[in-house]
Amino acid sequence: MPSAPEPDSFPGQLLRFAEELREEGLAVGTSELLDAFSALEEVPWTERADMRETLAATLAKSQEDRRIFDVLFERFFFRQAEAEAVRQDVREEGGIDPSGAQLVDVDALRAQIAAAIREGNEGAMRDLARLAIAAFGRQGEGSGVIGVDVQRIRRALELRAEPQPDLPPDDPRAEGLPREGIRDFEAHLRRELERATIERTRKLPPARPLNELDRALPSGPLADLAQVHRIVAQLKRRLATQGHEQRGRKRHAHVDVRRTMRASLQTGGVPIVVKTRPRRPRRPEILVLCDVSTSVTSASVFFLSVLHALHDAFRKLRSFVFIERISEVTEIFERERNFKAVNEAIGRDAGVADISGYTDYGRVWEEFLAQIEDDLHPRATVIVLGDARTNGREPRADLFAQVAERAGRTFWLNPEPRLYWNYGDSVIAAYERHCEAFECWTTSQLEDFVKALTRPVAGAAP
Amino acid sequence: MPIEPDSVSDVARGLRETGYLPGESTALVSYLAAKLGKPVLVEGPAGVGKTELAKALSRYLERRLVRLQCYEGLDEAKALYEWNYRKQLLRIQTEQAGAGWDAVQDDIFSADFLLQRPLMEAIASEDPVVLLIDEIDKTDQEFEAMLLELLSDFQISIPELGRIDARTQPVVILTSNNSRELTEALKRRCLYLWLDYPELDLELEIVRLHSPELDETVARKLVEVVHQVRALDLKKPPSIAESIDWARALLLLGARDIDAQTFRDTMSIVVKHRTDLDTVAERIGMKLGGLADAQRA
């Protein structure tokens, strides 16, 4: 049996890297690793870019994975190099020298950085990032939090994406800088600051898992409309294909006479193969209740727009929004295709906040029961989106139980991470007894939920 | 004689010569595919040249292209093989009197009665081929499962006949528009390549390659406009093919510059949705108009 690879050898490092990928949820199996090794034999992996692409092609098998891979690859090999430097006590030549800071012409530096960002010149950006840290970074007495320092330096440099007309026209910043360029430069700043910290303290800070928020739903409701639409479009296509998938698998009782006869021609008119009629997928009737108080607005408007984008998939869809009382908004969504207009219309016309602007779940259930009495039957699905924070008011779970009992299925979507459930004034546990509760704050969770929603119910009438 | 590439730059150069300008990772993954004999799963938005890559590879490697277009309901009878039952029936009828059951049964389930479909054709071919399995995401999961044997071992098991091994190893390209999540099992057997819209310079080169007569400055402006259009929130962002079409149209019209007027007239080549047209006219048309005015002033 061959011995296990040394931890510092190249295979050992690659295995550690794979381990980090697994911790972030990539499915890196042994077969992927074997592929990676055999692929590296074919490629001169002394080139950093080639090596990264080779590993990505064999280890990261979706666009999402690829994004995580890129972040981890940068971090892992940066840390490896730094660890080696610390061990061998190498200090980089031309390191950031605080005493030189006074000599830097600040205005010229600003212009140079802006030019480098505009041209996307990586090498220049890296060098200038070091200079900028020396000039603005108050070396040795930074805030200790790298993110804060990065933002401070960026502000001091006056790098903005918007045009700045009061600057002279030949200044590269006058027309505004490309957003991506600014992000790249920030990444350089961050890396150089990290490097400086490591050099100063002579040890590596602990690696922390990737921020889950990197993958969260677009947070500002109107921050990234294009992204929301892309997600919705993708969901829609996936759902469209999903229905068909289900159709093929089930055995059905209804014989399709025409197709059976046609098939029998192959066997001389003897119907040997019986063809059955495909089952229509169940199209649920849906009632949505959405909390639109300030604590959850972004999530709920996003969610409502997803549902309405998908309205072809449902037989009937009625939506309500609530804060202290409820209001039906189905019409607004039918009239308005524009996300922004919907948001404004809800804010203007719905009139759901009476006095305090705090959610009152007890009153909401009462009004909901009164308004939709006729629509509540076993074929109906009720979806509630809210954080179940009652602000100290009566949760009235008994009324909610009545709703859940009369509807076929009841789902609760909570835009808070499960960690915060039942903390403070959150009473989700009281409601969870009567319904299926989902966490819903990343797109993949949302997708899981939509899948659960459209899944045909076993034993349901065709 | 089919070509065996020796290095990544070989592949890059070869693909270039066939008129396909590969990005860095495209060339690298293609090289690995040829060397390791692993299938490549190519994903990306519509119209970035996924299918074109397979065609270019077949031209470069001087291999025949075998194409399987996937669609909903595609089954093994259309993808792998089918028994030619008409021929089987005839065979039984001509020999009705003489031969016993066993002889006939052995006989009719032999290679002579097999209809080859694209997948089988690809591995049974005398010369190595490039196999393109296009839009694999359109099929259902059962079909994917059926592909697994072929993709990992390059063999097909036929119950009546036994195993058929590949005579030559094909280069396999699978494309997907990501309309559904493919199974882990399939992904595990493939190298992964994400193709995105190309960088500005690369796209400029592509446009220039396809319509070399177009004025350089016009071509650059065209590509810049297309990139701006892609940055908008559209139902269907323009693909590379549409940039090329647009370049050809401008060439035919003899346009010297893309101003607001030309743009409005030819916009429908790159933007193909009613609502998208409005958005683009408003956002980009305005900008172009503004530029033209500024130049005049």
CATH topology of the largest domain in chain A: Rossmann fold
What radius of gyration of chain A results from the CA coordinates? 29 Å
Query: What would CATH call the architecture of the largest domain in chain A?
Result: 3-Layer(aba) Sandwich
CATH class call of the largest domain in chain B: Alpha Beta
> Strand order across the biggest sheet of chain B?
2-5-8-1-9
Assess the beta-strand content of chain A as a share of residues.
Answer: 5-15%
Described by the principal axes of the CA atoms, the overall outline of chain B is: elongated
Question: What share of the residues of chain A lie within helices?
Answer: 40-55%
SSE pattern of chain A: HHHHHHHHHHEHEEHHHEHEHEH
Largest interface: A-B, 36 and 36 residues
**Could you estimate the helical fraction of the residues of chain B in percent?**
40-55%
- Unreliably modeled segments of chain B: 291-297
What ranges of chain A have pLDDT less than 50 throughout 5 or more consecutive residues?
Answer: 94-101, 211-225, 243-249, 458-462
Structural class call of chain B reads alpha/beta
What is the CATH topology assignment of the largest domain in chain B? Rossmann fold
Rg of chain B, Cα atoms, Å: 25 Å
